[in-house]
Design goal:
This protein is of the alpha/beta class. 33% of the residues lie in helices and 22% in strands. Strand 4, helix 4 and strand 5 form a beta-alpha-beta unit. Bound molecules: 5-O-phosphono-beta-D-ribofuranosylamine.
């Protein structure tokens, strides 16, 4: 499956998707990276991996949508992956890619949508935080949930420490969720994602222990 990755900055989740190619059986490849900022560090990651990349300025939401859409389609993209893309997307663009666009968010949605999710989790005093990969709908950080990973909140955590713990989980979760979509194992039913071949032991690995998520990455056999 050909991916188009939209970024605005650091691009560590982009890097996780790039690194997933180390497994020759990984069922997705990045066809194009689009950044709305010319200074996004993620652009250097794309260049280092010899992945075509473009900067599309986001002065106007509609103009960005038209140009990004044209570039994604020209690159033969089948699934758009938002990876730290920090601008609101045009509703028409979101609808055009409905069920073919995913996002990663640093909270256990539907808790803490929007900006500063990790800080707000700390303020709320939650015991567990985490990250979510979901299909994108027009309202920010909503849409059918594909996969989540849980991390504990430790006593004395500050925003930096919690964010780093969540980010480590993000880097495991995003390639896993994209794999599920690319393998055609996800079906949206009544606004929820059903996953073919999702076995109980795999599901248990998502419980709030600190067990690694690696077993989830294997194809059911
Ligand atoms: C991640 O925390 C992601 O969940 C959020 O924005 C951040 C992007 O980080 N949407 P990076 O650019 O992938 O390093």
């Amino acid at each position: 499956m050909r991916l188009g990755v939209l970024i605005s900055g650091r691009g560590s989740n982009l890097q996780a998707l790039i690194d997933a190619r180390a497994d020759p059986a990984y069922p997705a490849e990045i066809a194009i990276v689009i950044s709305n900022r010319a200074d996004a560090a993620g652009l250097a990651r794309a260049a280092a991996a010899h992945i075509p990349a473009a900067t599309v300025a986001h002065r106007d939401r509609g103009e960005f949508a038209a140009e990004a859409d044209a570039r994604l389609r020209a690159a033969g993209v089948e699934l758009v992956c938002l990876a730290g893309f920090m601008r609101l997307l045009d509703t028409g663009f979101v609808e055009a890619w409905r069920d073919h666009m995913v996002n990663i968010h640093p909270s256990l949605l539907p808790a803490f949508p929007g900006l500063d999710a990790q800080r707000r989790a700390l303020v709320a005093g939650v015991r567990f935080a985490g990250c979510t990969v979901h299909f994108v709908r027009p309202q920010v950080d909503t849409g059918p949930i594909i996969a989540q990973a849980v991390v504990p909140v430790h006593p004395g955590d500050d925003e930096e420490r919690l964010s780093a713990r969540i980010l480590t989980a993000e880097h495991r979760l995003y390639p896993l969720a994209v794999r599920l979509v690319a393998e055609g194992r996800t079906r949206i039913m009544d606004g929820k994602v059903e996953i073919d071949g999702w076995r109980a032991p795999e599901f248990a690995a998502l419980n709030p222990s600190e067990r690694p998520l690696d077993p989830l990455v294997s194809t059911p056999g």
